[in-house]
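User: My collaborator sent over this chain with a note saying "see what the structure looks like." That's all I know about it. Can you take a look?
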Amino acid sequence: MNEQTQTSRPAIDSSVYGFAPGATADDVRELIEKKLAHLDAMLLMTWGVGGETFGRVLDASAQDNYLWACSELATEIRELFGLQGVMR
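Assistant: Without extra context I'll predict from the sequence alone. Here is the result:
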């Protein structure tokens, strides 16, 4: 496993997402939907026919980093769900 996965992730600040003043829960929902579409596309490459290529073409370090990116994106989505509730 990549050493970077062992480090703790700093608490997320909503300013990272650059929400404009007046942003609504609907704006956050749209961002969540976009990030879920990205994650879905990324994960398609890890199973079935895409998974065969994933395992054959990428070395272990690249696979680890790719899946780490998927995990980080899932964490961002989870945190955005929390922001959505605050912005109502």
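A starting point for your reply to your collaborator: DSSP finds three helices and no strands in the chain.
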